[in-house]
Amino acid sequence: MFGKALRLLRRSHDLKQQELATKLDISRSYVSELESGNRTPSLDLLDRYAQTFKIPVSSLVFFAEALEEKSEIGTKLNNAKGAIARKIINMLQFLDEKDDENEKETSR
Asked: What CATH number does residue 91 fall under?
């Protein structure tokens, strides 16, 4: 549930996994496991993410839920929050894809 949201959040702040791991006082491999969905963050770790990125924990939860329900977001979240969440999710995914393309071209 949180993996993709945490990855998009990190990448939108232009941080490498190691840089974020240092800020959160966890290992890079643990960040990787969280982002791949193999591990679930504790409430304490979600709080550290929220502090690091200066957002409320509730926003992390909302963002993760919105990503999970993206296919249904139009019907489930017709209010202003839903519209904003859709735009943010689409923008972050677009930027993430562009970063992936740039990384592939750079490594050639």
From this structure: 1.10.260.40
The answer, yes or no, to whether residue 63 has pLDDT greater than 80, is yes
Domain limits for position 40 = 3-106
Distance CA 30, CA 97 (A): 23
3-39 pLDDT, tens digit per residue, is: 989 999 999 899 999 999 999 999 999 999 999 999 9
Number of structural domains the chain divides into: 1
